[in-house]
Amino acid sequence: MDIHVHHGPIQTTAADAIVVNLFQGVTHLGGATGAVDAALGGQISAVIGSGDFKGKLGETLVLYGRGVIPASRVIVVGLGKAEEFILDTVRCAAAAAALAARKLGARSLATIVHRARGDQLDLAAEAQALVEGTLLALYEFKIYKTQGDETPSQVEYLTVVETDSDRLEAISSGIVAGEAVAAGVILARDLANHPGNVATPTYLANQAVALAERHGMRVEVWDADRMRAEGMGAFLSVSAGSAEPPKFIIVEYAPTGDAVLSPHVLVGKGVTFDTGGISLKPGAKMGDMKFDMAGAAAVLGTMEAVGRLSLNRRIVGLIGATENMPGGKATKPGDIVRTLTGATVEIVNTDAEGRMVLADLLGFARRLQPAAVVDLATLTGAIVVALGSQYAGLFANDDALASALQVAGEATGEPLWRMPLGKRYDDIVKSKVADMANLAPGSPVPAGAVNGAKFLERFVQYPWAHLDIAATAWDAKDISYIPEGATGFGVRLLVQWLRA
Ligand code: BES
Ligand code: MN
Ligand code: ZN
User: Which of 9, 129, 312, 387 is deepest in the core (most CB within 10 A)?
Assistant: First the structure.
């Protein structure tokens, strides 16, 4: 989409549709909405007076220009209650307007930046949220649909209109950031939406190499032989049953001159399909396990945004890409393997595979002397039960890191709920025969999400946070800018955290 800022009033802007807004309960229209209302001879006020349009968040009203104004249509989008206005309101309102515009067949859209009178939010951040909401709502994944379902017309132009010339610069920089972040989210969604037969570990490695080339980043891909030579027995235990070769992918972004600084490290679970292995999953909904690489997708999406924004930080992405399959050579329950750090693990259940992959990646991260490490993983069904798709689970050994991530998540509409990681749970990963077990006994496992996190904790020696995104990574219903399928969860949050 072509996105520009334009200096001028919205009521004289030509477009297939112009977008203004309304807070719930407002009857006297001011600002841009009042100006458009006046130009239309009070049409908006009349509809509000009738009670047919209330301004609830995401509600839309369509009126027609009828040659009175240059625009063909006017979309009024509801912002909800003024006292509840937050950055995510802008994303939701922009999404509602964009979806309404597409439905109407509008190709060009002009909009104001949605704001609350005297709000304390940063204008650039609001413009960024506007662009994110628009681009992310219009996202579709239809490349495998070769028949029927004619693509409706697409919104191709977005003009952000502003009357105050002092504000144009902030809006422009917000647009640039919004485009970069949305590109990252969209890459993450695409990667996760591809089925397991396409998005294989090799595919992810190729995507990482292409990404690194696009942005002048360093990239390294380790194959199974290299991983064996390094002693990554935990990771390799997961790929043992698969015909698809596993890949350990390292992508490094360094701003010029800063290569020696301690990096911020992002670690992604990239299980391109999780059958459960010999501890086979039931058939119902097993197909969803093509999304089990959403953590890896979020890391690559973040690196895409980082490359576009040229952030001033050293950032390393580590991705463990493998399938988890049953097979003659597959790992069996009861097997014991040695991890990169030298610790031995009893594999109680081969379906607890994500933590095996991450164990070796987190162990590897020690070598980087990181400032902080954040891993993202669709790790446990237990976090789905605990939190649903409203919050991702956050586990951290560092309070400052945890709150920085929570603050970032509130700003980007990807909230995190902190879960416990205390000493009380230390015994949860104990094993009678090895240094630790990948799962506690019992079915269902008590505190299943904590169990996963406590296992990972054994491998870290630095400020660390673990995001269990099993529920938030796909099919997060009820968020207007998140279509069905992969959500790209984590990209906005990580970019926000890295920029702060
Ligand atoms: N990839 C799954 C976690 C998952 C489950 C993600 C449901 C999204 C939806 C993970 O590898 C897994 O299988 N976890 C098991 C652990 C179990 C063996 C204790 C789970 O949560 O059921
Ligand atoms: Mn599993
Ligand atoms: Zn899994």
Answer: 129
Number of structural domains (the chain) is: 2
Number of H helices, E strands in the chain: 14, 17
Q: Residues 286-310: pLDDT tens digits?
A: 999 999 999 999 999 999 999 999 9
Q: Is 40 in the pocket of ligand 1 (CB under 6 A)?
A: no
Q: Point out the ligand 1 atom lying closest to the alpha carbon of residue 281.
A: 13
Tokens standing for residue 298: 């979020």
Q: By the 8 A CB rule, do 383 and 395 touch?
A: no
Among 387, 388, 363, which Cα is nearest to 375's? Answer: 363
Question: Does ligand 1 lie within 6 Å of residue 439's CB atom?
Answer: yes
Distance from Cα 327 to the centre of ligand 3, integer Å: 17
Q: At what angle do helices 168-193 and 491-499 cross, to 10 degrees?
A: 140
Give the structural domain span for 29. Answer: 2-138
| Residues 349 and 412 reside in one and the same domain | yes
DSSP string, 266-304: EEEEEEEEE--TTSPPPSTTGGGGGGTTHHHHHHHHHHH
What's the 488 CA to ligand 1 centre distance in angstroms? 19
pTM of the model: 0.98
